[in-house]
């Protein structure tokens, strides 16, 4: 018998406001529905208790600026830690798959964190992935993000990692936050074509989404051959969601799960608290457990799809053609402070909608034929004016990239800024600040 792990963490003491769509009822209605339907009594279901991630677990993956202590991370550490609990259960073969029903969500939180954006501060899936890579020898990971919003934070963290395939199916960024996730976003210089963004038109429903999975996503997963598949299980593609405009049903979500066969799913968005979430989560859990979900029907009926089968297939064919035609266009810059090597420069900004400020980013990636390459991120908070930096030496980094990373680390410590060193190769995390010097985690 296969076993499915479930873990609930409603985060009672974390709130963005009593009437905010991201509130504890998102999980309470689901929990009640699963118990009422007798799902928790199924012999293949194993329930787990929440856990707490350490700061090192977080900083291995994300830089928290100007320091971790400057943010209220309590609930976020439990959401991330609960994902680790299920990840360990999977790695130890206690379960065949699992679903972490946790909040706060995380997929808008990126490689650098200056605050909360899109309801996210810590990226639960990314922290989980790098934990399993560090302690359980997982090499290749695929993430399929089925939230209606582009998983821009997850993409940011793994954009330069050739061993992580990130696929996001989402409502077109021209019509929805965060305004990203276009077909030409294909990965960095050492990880080209390990990012696949599929922007879909408003009104996309079950049939269309399943077609995209079967004709594009599943073949890409098959080619990549991951050791682990994670589903960022956002549920705001549902036809009743108040923040989006898609047309997916609860049974449609059950079929998504059945097609993807994720090893682990982690809850992301979904804000139709009574009309969708209890039914969508029920269908997902039943699909994970190998049970029939065809009888899961929500009270309301979906809108009639505006897409014809022929026109939608033509639209997807054009997206595939655009993806295939997109070629690398790297910006190569030589700066005196950069160690030896060919460095790609990628400037951009990140908008923090919760507090209304921008982070100005200057990303530098060392092009390498042997590993994911050293990454340097220079970050400035436009609200405070403070500057920070992240130096990342990748998993399985080569000796040249490792040396480049430590050269940058020593150089940056001489500046009056906060600097985080992520030596993923050696599981070493150090944080430098002008006031406290070096702190090791």
Automatic annotation (TrEMBL):
**What is the name of the protein in this document?**
Deacetylase, histone deacetylase/acetoin utilization protein
One annotated GO biological process: epigenetic regulation of gene expression
Report the GO molecular function annotations. Answer: histone deacetylase activity
Any Pfam family matching the protein: Hist_deacetyl
Family membership = Belongs to the histone deacetylase family.
Using the record's annotation, list all stretches that form the Histone deacetylase domain: 61-274
Q: What's the domain of life for this entry?
A: Bacteria
The source organism is: Desulfitobacterium dichloroeliminans (strain LMG P-21439 / DCA1)
């Amino acid at each position: 018998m296969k076993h499915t792990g479930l873990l609930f963490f409603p985060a009672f003491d974390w709130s963005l406001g009593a009437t905010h769509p991201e509130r504890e009822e998102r999980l309470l209605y689901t929990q009640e529905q699963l118990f009422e339907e007798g799902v928790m009594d199924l012999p293949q279901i194993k329930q787990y208790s929440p856990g707490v991630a350490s700061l090192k677990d977080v900083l291995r993956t994300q830089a928290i600026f100007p320091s971790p202590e400057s943010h209220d991370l309590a609930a976020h550490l439990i959401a991330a830690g609960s994902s680790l609990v299920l990840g360990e259960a999977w790695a130890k073969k206690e379960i065949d798959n699992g679903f972490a029903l946790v909040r706060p969500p995380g997929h808008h939180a990126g490689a650098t964190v200056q605050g909360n954006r899109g309801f996210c501060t810590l990226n639960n899936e990314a922290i989980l992935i790098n934990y399993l890579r560090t302690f359980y020898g997982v090499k290749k990971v695929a993430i399929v993000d089925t939230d209606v919003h582009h998983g821009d934070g997850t993409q940011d963290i793994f954009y330069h990692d050739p061993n992580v395939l990130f696929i996001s199916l989402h409502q077109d960024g021209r019509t929805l936050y965060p305004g990203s996730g276009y077909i030409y976003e294909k990965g960095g210089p050492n990880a080209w074509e390990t990012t696949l963004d599929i922007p879909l038109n408003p009104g996309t429903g079950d049939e269309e989404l399943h077609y995209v999975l079967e004709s594009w996503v599943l073949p890409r997963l098959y080619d990549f051959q991951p050791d682990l598949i994670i589903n960022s299980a956002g549920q705001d593609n549902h036809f009743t969601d108040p923040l989006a405009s898609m047309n997916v049903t609860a049974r449609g979500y059950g079929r998504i799960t059945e097609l993807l066969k994720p090893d682990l799913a982690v809850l992301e968005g979904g804000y139709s608290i009574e009309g969708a979430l209890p039914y969508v989560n029920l269908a997902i859990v039943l699909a994970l457990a190998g049970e029939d979900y065809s009888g899961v029907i929500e009270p309301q009926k979906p809108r009639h799809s505006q897409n014809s089968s022929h026109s939608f297939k033509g639209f997807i064919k054009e997206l595939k053609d655009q993806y295939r035609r997109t070629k690398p266009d790297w910006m190569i810059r030589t700066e005196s402070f950069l160690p030896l090597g060919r460095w790609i420069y990628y400037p951009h900004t990140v908008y923090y909608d919760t507090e209304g400020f921008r982070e100005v980013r200057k990303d530098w990636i060392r092009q390498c034929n042997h590993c994911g390459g050293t990454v340097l991120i220079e970050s400035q908070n436009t609200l405070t004016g403070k500057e920070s930096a992240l130096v990342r030496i990748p998993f399985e980094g080569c000796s040249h990239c490792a040396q480049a990373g430590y050269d940058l680390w020593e150089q940056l410590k001489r500046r009056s800024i906060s600097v985080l060193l992520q030596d993923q190769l050696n599981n070493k995390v150090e944080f430098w600040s002008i006031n406290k010097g070096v702190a090791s985690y």
